[in-house]
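Structure ticket #2291
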Amino acid sequence: MAHGLRQIIRQFLAFGTVGVAGFVVDAGVLTLMLRLTGAGPYLGRVVSFLCAATFTWALNRVFTFRDQGTHHTLGAQWLRFLGANAIGGFVNFGVYSLLLATVAFFTAHPVAGVAAGSLAGLAVNFTLSRMFVFSASTR
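Resolution: structure written out below.
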């Protein structure tokens, strides 16, 4: 297997692992927002998504894409990460919203909607993060 392909596979697996940890943050913050603040499932999800996105950016920076680096400041790279992953975020939130609006199970269990949305956005987020946030061309 070529070195480049091995690197992509390693990065994808690392990105997925970070994503699982991000799911825990996402679901945990959503649960806290629903139970402690009285926020509805949509506002709660916006807050939980932003918390999870920040968490995953930090882990991906030091773990998944550590070999690729960047000269951007932390703030600039975080903004690039949010911007590049907004498309995956829209896919994520769209799946979540569609399921909550149409399937009683997900209405009763919004965290299951978080899981479905997270899976839907994974490939989009990985590709855009690799190409536009952590690529050598962003140095």
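Closing remark: The longest helix spans residues 3-37.
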